[in-house]
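pasting for the record
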Amino acid sequence: MRYNLVMNYEESCEAIRKKLATLSDTNAEDWHLCLKARFGMALVFEAIRDVLGDGEVITTPYTCITSINPILVAGLTPVYHDIDKTILSTGKPDDKLCKGKTKAIVMQHTLGIIGDKTSLRKYADKHKLILVEDSAHCVTRFARDKDNKILADISVHSFGVEKVLTGSKFGGAIYINPELKKKNPDLYIRIVEKFDRLKQPDHFMAFRVRTYRLNNAIIQRLHGRLRRGFRNFEIKAGLLEPPIYPFEQDGQQDEPQATNKYINERILQQLGNLKPNYIRRSANVDLYRNKLQSKHFTKVTKIHEPLLAYPILFNDANKANEAYDMLSSQGYFIRRWYTPLLYPGPNSLKIYRYDPKKVPVAEDISTRVLCLPTDLPVIETTKIIRALTDPVAKEKKK
């Protein structure tokens, strides 16, 4: 459907909200749009600070740096909890980590691994924290209780680069649980007000959004230093909007902005294909779960979920690097999320209040993880499995 022929900006925003509501069994009025998910997170944390005051946010270092910057620019302090290696995110934190000045806790679904996260809701309730869900890797999916109620107070979803919707490149959506209106009406109102004040991108940003695909296509055709040099030139000249700006490795980010009509059209097109997108990813996850085997690595999760990528954990970092090089040389896009932690790595650990010694599990897994694509045709996924499967394992299977 050619949405641009029949909708103006406001109508396309409403169409996205309705589509999100349909796909997630929620209400359209509880969804709020922005140019990037990180912008929405910043508005949420700013509102938390405005209403609840200065304080800390419990989060994980096993994440992208753009998930931590919103905490910093809001004037709050990140406190890092180590990860559960079976879900690659925060399990139930130690009560000692939550102090009187703790305001919120982030519940991240790394690669789309949700599982059972009711313990985090109980933890948040016990310590009177705002539970912020990071669903950037699993748009329209939520952690829910046994009665199918959404656990989080606020949920962050992304249509951006390297996420589930491969064609939209830009856009984020924040879901505000209507229960928050009852629990903390001041916070609810403050968040909504912040989204209502967002302005559409200026002409320069709109240009970078429109030319994003073309610029990246040109860059990918270049080689080595020429590629890096041209990319850096385009960024400095304001011609390319990169997934992560250099200044974002220093705890900064741009002012939040809304989407525009052009972005909305692409989001709507991609949301229209979300169901088959998730069906394909689920099928590939099942292939990895059932067919992939080796003495050199273990499969992180056995849960049947439509993951953004399928994580495997090698016995040592060298084997992980060898497998990455081998698959990359065959033309496969293999992710090393999150290698390093706070990907792609901060310029200063001090800015991020990060101490590697306090999160040994995350530090260890970061060096040994490989994330396999789930959006490929089955025949390509089968080739990856064959490339990674030991000859000994193949013989045993026969």
